[in-house]
């Protein structure tokens, strides 16, 4: 299951692709998306939040039909339980089971089958 | 159980096409033995459990070569999170539901860095790098770990099998056919699984009617893991620090290293000037 918390870390590693042009990967042909309840851990979310690529997260959630997150990452007192609950839902409860992720630069396709993305590239495709 | 050293023609094949050697003697084997293997891999090792318990809440980590995912449930009651990565789909099917819960897993290999800049707070590589068949590929795997974590605070823990095995180990390592008096390092480790009627049981050793799979391992000698870290650091232009001194350039500190239960391990900390 690809959650958006994992998607927020992934980028394309094909030859010629570099950060930030290779990020975020774009979901396409999503034929199975599931929402599954997950344990809420406020401390985890609060502490990891500053490490997110916020804009990428908000835009990806929108593409999947979830518009609950604000455009700007909330700071200080604005990080209340309400916002953490929304963040929890977007990061931890939306699962992409079947579909693909494409590189925004080179369009390389990383298929997702039974919830497992295949990030392998052929030896000649890899950029190091 | 005696490990089998590579003969000259096997060594030649390995050097000619290391990726093919790993594909035949590592990836294909794990896919065939995944279910049996998974039944035997459930006890976390103490230093690794302690490492995971020492991480601050909110830490995101990569388990590179997660196998059946035995470390993924050690998420400190949800205060940290581990993403599992492995080459074997057979093992990932187990990792995906390790500890009876849905886990985040991906298919990839230990040389790949498909993570954005500053992605993880920590990475673990447990019993993985010893499946890579040349010094260059093992160095690249260490580089991949260092490149996957934060340059300012990323922590990395690596475990590999040692040529020095303790009395609890049932493995005996033969002499290297090319280096008199030295232990063989490029070896096959047989995985035997009982076939036929009754309860199937996979293990290293045994004497029933068996189906045998040969897994490739590179056994690490004393100092070799540190050597790899030094080379990877050099290639990434990181200065190597022995203690918590002030840093003036991007650096990697060796926090601890040692030998535990027939394995060599090293813990690293990436540091950047303030």
UniProtKB/TrEMBL annotation, chain A:
Q: Name one Pfam family in it.
A: Trm112p
Q: Which InterPro entries does the entry mention?
A: Trm112, Trm112-like
Signal sequence range: none
Q: Which domain of life is it from?
A: Eukaryota
Gene Ontology process terms (BP) = rRNA (guanine-N7)-methylation; tRNA methylation
Q: Which GO MF terms does the UniProt record name?
A: protein heterodimerization activity
- Into which family does the record put it? Belongs to the TRM112 family.
Name recorded for this polypeptide: Trm112
Q: What is the lineage of its organism?
A: Eukaryota, Fungi, Dikarya, Basidiomycota, Agaricomycotina
From TrEMBL, chain B:
Q: Name one GO biological process term.
A: tRNA methylation
Q: From which domain of life does this come?
A: Eukaryota
Start and end of every Methyltransferase type domain?
62-147
One Gene Ontology cellular component annotation held by this UniProt entry: cytoplasm
What keywords tag this UniProt record? Methyltransferase, Transferase
| InterPro entries in UniProt | AlkB_tRNA_MeTrf/Diox, Methyltransf_11, SAM-dependent_MTases_sf
Q: What GO terms are given for molecular function?
A: S-adenosylmethionine-dependent methyltransferase activity; tRNA (5-carboxymethyluridine(34)-5-O)-methyltransferase activity; tRNA binding
What is the official name of this protein in its record? S-adenosyl-L-methionine-dependent methyltransferase
- Recorded source organism is Calocera cornea HHB12733
* Lineage of source species: Eukaryota, Fungi, Dikarya, Basidiomycota, Agaricomycotina
């Amino acid at each position: 299951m690809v959650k958006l918390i994992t998607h927020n870390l992934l980028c394309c590693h094909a030859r010629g692709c570099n950060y930030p042009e290779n990020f975020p990967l774009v979901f396409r042909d999503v034929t199975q998306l599931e929402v599954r309840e997950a344990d809420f851990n406020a401390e985890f979310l609060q502490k990891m939040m500053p490490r997110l690529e916020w804009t990428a997260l908000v835009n990806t959630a929108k593409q999947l039909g979830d518009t609950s997150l604000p455009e700007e990452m909330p700071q200080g007192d604005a990080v209340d339980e309400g916002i953490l609950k929304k963040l929890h839902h977007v990061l931890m409860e939306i699962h992409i089971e079947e579909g693909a992720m494409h590189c925004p630069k080179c369009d390389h396709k990383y298929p997702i089958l039974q919830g497992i993305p295949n990030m392998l590239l052929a030896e000649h495709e890899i950029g190091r | 159980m005696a490990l089998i050293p590579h003969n000259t023609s096997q060594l030649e094949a390995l050097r000619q096409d290391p990726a093919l050697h790993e594909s035949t003697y590592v990836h294909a084997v794990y896919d065939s033995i995944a279910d049996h293997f998974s039944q035997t891999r459930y006890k976390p090792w103490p230093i690794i459990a302690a490492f995971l318990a020492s991480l601050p809440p909110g830490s995101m980590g990569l388990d590179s070569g997660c196998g059946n995912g035995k470390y993924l449930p050690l998420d400190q009651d949800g205060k940290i999170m581990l993403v599992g990565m492995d080459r074997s789909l057979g093992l990932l099917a187990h990792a995906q539901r390790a500890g009876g819960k849905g886990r985040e897993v991906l298919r990839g290999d230990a040389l790949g860095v498909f993570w954005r800049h500053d992605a993880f707070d920590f990475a673990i590589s447990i019993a993985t790098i010893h499946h890579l068949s040349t010094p260059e590929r093992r160095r690249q795997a260490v580089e991949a770990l260092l490149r996957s974590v934060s340059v300012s605070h990323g922590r990395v823990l690596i475990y590999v099998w040692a040529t020095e095995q303790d009395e609890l180990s049932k493995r005996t390592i033969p002499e290297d056919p090319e280096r008199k008096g030295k232990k063989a390092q490029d070896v096959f480790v047989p995985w035997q699984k009982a076939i036929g009627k009754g309860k199937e049981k996979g293990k290293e050793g045994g004497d029933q009617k068996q189906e045998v799979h040969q897994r490739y391992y590179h056994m690490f000698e004393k100092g070799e893991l540190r050597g790899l870290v030094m080379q990877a650091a050099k290639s990434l232009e990181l200065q190597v620090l022995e203690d918590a001194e002030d840093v003036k350039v991007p650096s990697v500190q060796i926090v601890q290293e040692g030998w535990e239960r027939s394995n060599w391990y090293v813990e690293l900390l990436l540091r950047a000037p303030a």
